[in-house]
Amino acid sequence: MLDFFKQASLFVMTALAEIIGCYLPWLVLKQGKSVWLLVPAAVSLGLFSWLLTLHPAAAGRTYAAYGGIYIAVALLWLRFVDGAVLTRWDITGAGVALLGMAIIVLQPQT
Q1: What pTM did the predictor assign?
Q2: Which of 36, 37, 39, 60 could form a disulfide with 24 if both were Cys (CB 3.0 to 4.6 A apart)?
Q3: From CA 58, how far away is CA 87, in angstroms rounded?
């Protein structure tokens, strides 16, 4: 179970790196923020790519499991950064996605 929480934590860090790397260019393009935000955006996306390589599973399985955490982290970003109120549908969808991630990560080793 400890390995599951380590992987989940790594997925959370990976999701944050991806979201930040995409959010900063969004600020530049949609809100007219400084183009200098593209520098930390590029660093963040590089970090995102590197973090994905740290997962022990095959790439496709890692990406599939990562999707569940990404959905949950993106909704937390929506709530705490964008200030939107999450709906019961948001929360239910995140729960289903996290269940899918857990099924993939906790599958028996063959």
Answers
A1: 0.87
A2: 37
A3: 34
